[in-house]
Structure formats: C-alpha cells, structure tokens
Amino acid sequence: MSSLLQIENLVRHFVVKRTVLGRPVAAVKAVDGVSLSVEVGDTFALVGESGCGKSTLGRLILRLIEPQAGRLLFEGRDITAFKDEALRSFRRHAQLIFQDPYASLNPRMRVEQILREPLDLHDIVPVTQRRQRVAELLSLVGLSPSAAQRYPHEFSGGQRQRIAIARAIAVEPKLIVCDEPVSALDVSIRSQILNLLRDLQRRLGLTYIFISHDLAVVKHIANKVAVMNLGQIVEQGSVQDLFSTPQHPYTRALLSAIPVPNPHVRRERIILRGELPSALALPPGCRFHTRCPFAIDRCRIEVPPLRTDEKGHRAACHRIGELPPAEPIQTSRVSDSLQHLMTAFTRKVDGPRASRVI
C-alpha cells in the first residue's frame, strides 16, 4: 500500500461580508486545517452533517475550488502549484461523480457526445476508435451500447448515474471523488450503483473518496472513514474500529441515528441538545461543546488536538478514555438487509435484466 493523496492543513474560508473598503469581517470556515492520507485502492469515506464541509473538501482535492492554505500531494507532487497543462493532466487522473444525475449531464447532448467529450479533451484514444470506446464504457456500467444515441431525459435516475460513472472512468483515472452518488436515487437501485462502484474499483484499480451522510451506505462500501464537524475532522479510522468503538461523542450521536430494519431491536438514540453553532461565529475551544453531553470546562476553552492511538485511530476529544463504553453498532446487518431487500425488489419489478438497465 502506498499513499496516493496526502492533505496537509488544508484551509478554505468563504467571505460573506466585507466593509466598504473591502476588508472581510465575516467568513464561513468551510474547511479549517484538515489533514488526512488516502492510500492506493482505498475507499475513504467523508461523513458528517449537512454543512460540515465534506463536499467543499472534495472539490478542493480536485482544485475546483482553490485552497487558501495547506498542501495537496498527489503521488508525491504538490498539485496546489500546478498551472494550465499540469493541472489538466492531473484532472485526467482525478475525476468527480456528482450527487444529482439530473443536473450533471448536459440535456442537449447525446450520451455519445457526453462520453466522447473527455476522450476528445485528453486525446487518449485514437479518433477512429472513440465510438468503440463509448460502447465499451456503456457496457462496463451495465448499459446497452445503443443508449449512445439517446438523450439524458430518456433515462431513469439510476441509468443517468451510470452514464455519469461512465464519463468519470472514461479517461482512466486513479482517483474518483464520489459526492453522495446515491443520495438522489430511489432506495431500490442504490445497492446496484454501490455494487457497480465496487466492481469497477476491483476491475480498474480505482481509489475512491466517498462523501456521504448515510452511515449504513458507508459501512457497505468504505474501508476507512473520517468524520467532519464544522470544517474539521473530529475522528478518523478504519470502518471496523469506528463503528465498533467510536471515541468522539459526535460520532456516537451519528451512529445512534442509523435505522435498524428490525422492529424488535431497540437502540438508545443519542439526542444532541443545546445550540448548533453558527458557521459565522464558531465557539471557542471544541466546536462541538455546545451540544456535547460530556463537555467539561476545558472543552469550552481549549481546542482538542487530533490524537492517534496505537491502531492508527484518530480522535479530537479531551475526554478520550473517560467516556462510558459506546454501544456497538451492528451496521453489517443493516447494510446486508437493505441490500437483500433492494435486490429482491429489483428482480421482482424488472426481471433478470435489471442489473443491466436500471
């Protein structure tokens, strides 16, 4: 295993108010000093509440948004210093799958034009072979090659997301940022898209950064997880460690909200009381202390460092080791049950060709 992507103290603030002379007086700290490492072949998940900065971080990694500070190392090279041709070359190796397949595809272009556009831009396939390459891409994501002559509005949501995935893998990338790729889809086809992503990862040697707020989905697809809160990472580790022994109170609250598909199973839900801080006026100390049931005076004053234990698990909390044991989250049963229900529903509705055409 080797590091494909390293992020060091990445910062991005968005100014929302300035004085008459243009001096910033209010800013949203969307990403505030984030550091992490993504290994080759990982599916690294970023999770957290809406507005925590995970989608902004994904776009910073691709330099769709420019960082204000910090470094982004891709295969050991600092991509924050890339210009023009070097940046274009990097973007061939790092692609994005958007959340909404209805908005991410040009409605005026046929599927063949959509998939040929990255091939034309990066010129990686001879012109005479590009139509054949489009047919191969469609087959790879489970669509018929005849779909190349149709427009996006002629497809279902799951089919459109398959087209978006085909576009992302067209230029043979090494890294794909998946920005909530199944949240806009019906529950009956989410499992198929997730299984498609996993299959493509095995076949093409891809590395994913998977952004999601659905922890059951994360448990199903990811092997490493980072939890974000108000622009900072508060916990990071392997899926097994984070779901079995969460250390940060915020992570525990998120995990307790995962639904269990069994009416006879009861889990204690952690209700976060207190005030959600404004992104324009973050509190001193730990940013979670206004809602944390375990906060002490130190939490209100001192920012907790992100400590790493002997397993490589990282958490930013002053009270690590003092909190009562967390209830284990048996999310494997959740994801397995959901996958079984989705597969059964799909077969019932669409028959044996469902895995190809949905």
Detailed description of the structure:
This protein is α/β, with parallel strands linked by helices. The protein has eleven helices and twelve strands. Strand 4 and strand 5 form a beta hairpin. Helix 3 (111-122) crosses helix 4 (130-140) and helix 5 (157-169) packs parallel to helix 6 (187-204). Mean pLDDT is 87; it is low at 331-335 and 344-358.
Q: Which secondary structure elements does this structure contain, and how are they paired or packed?
A:
Blueprint: E1 3-18, E2 24-39, E3 43-47, H1 54-61, E4 69-74, E5 77-78, H2 84-93, E6 94-97, H3 111-122, H4 130-140, H5 157-169, E7 175-179, H6 187-204, E8 207-212, H7 215-221, E9 224-229, E10 232-238, H8 239-244, H9 249-256, E11 307-308, E12 314-315, H10 331-350, H11 354-357
Parallel strand pairs: 3-8, 3-9, 6-7, 7-8
Antiparallel strand pairs: 1-2, 1-4, 4-5, 9-10, 10-12, 11-12
Helix pairs in contact: 3-4, 5-6, 6-10, 7-10
Class from secondary-structure proportions: alpha/beta
Give the overall silhouette. Answer: globular
Tell how many strands the DSSP assignment holds.
12
Instruction: State the share of residues found in helices, binned by percent.
Output: 25-40%
Radius of gyration: 22 Å
From the N-terminal CA to the C-terminal CA, the straight-line distance is: 35 Å
* H-E string: EEEHEEHEHHHEHEHEEHHEEHH
Mean pLDDT, nearest integer? 87
Lateral arrangement of strands in the main beta sheet: 6-7-8-3-9-10-12-11
* Annotation field: number of helices: 11
Largest sheet: 8 strands, mixed
Which segments are poorly predicted (pLDDT under 50) over 5 or more consecutive residues?
331-335, 344-358
Q: Give the quaternary arrangement of the chains.
A: single chain
β-strand amount: 15-25%
